[in-house]
Amino acid sequence: MPALADVYWKFGYAAEAAQLFETELGNLLIEYGVIEKDLVNRPNPSQAAELFRQIDKHTLGQLIIKLKVKNQLFANLEDELAKALEERNRLFHSFYRQHNFRRNSDEGRRRMLDDLESIHTTLLDAYKGVMLLSGVDLDKAGG
Q1: Stretch among 9-13, 30-34, 73-77, 96-100 having the lowest mean pLDDT
Q2: Which of 22, 27, 84, 85 is the most exposed place for a label (fewest CB within 10 A)?
Q3: Are 47 and 29 in contact (CB under 8 A)?
């Protein structure tokens, strides 16, 4: 019998996967920006700070769109990224509203946990796909 604390715990894991996914997309945009502006060979702190500010303003959807323009390999992940964006938004904007009073019963909490597991898997798979573009295979690394 799952407790409500189990639901909150699993929500946290799914939220972490969403954050990792979003952070890695931002990291890739920073990498592209540093290369485009040649900030390694010609350091410019104000230009670097502006790059970070601009990336920080982007929503997850905007990060995905910007990266598709910068790297054609993102086209291979388009469906996976779109699903991850949808699930991330559902997690943060409507998960508890969708499940409403299910939190009050064992069966309801089980359904919530199953849904959170599905969301977590979708987000983690998208994160792993993006990491592969950076040359990191999390499955081989034990992640």
Answers
A1: 73-77
A2: 27
A3: no
Nearest to 103 by CA among 9, 5, 10, 15: 5
The model's confidence at residue 141, banded by pLDDT at 50, 70 and 90, is confident
């920073």: which residue's tokens? 30
State residue 83 phi and psi, 5-degree precision.
Answer: -65, -40
Determine phi and psi for 38, rounding to 5 degrees.
50, 45
Question: Quick one: tokens of 2?
Answer: 């799952």
Q: How far is CA 29 from CA 10, 44, 63, 116, 132, in A?
A: 29, 17, 8, 28, 15
How far apart CA 20 and CA 24 sit, in angstroms, is 6
Q: What share of the chain is helix, strand, coil (3-state, %, to 5)?
A: 80, 0, 20
Whether 84 contacts 119, CB under 8 Å: no
Residue 71 has φ and ψ, to the nearest 5°, of -140, 110
Going from N- to C-terminal start, the domains of the chain cover 4-133
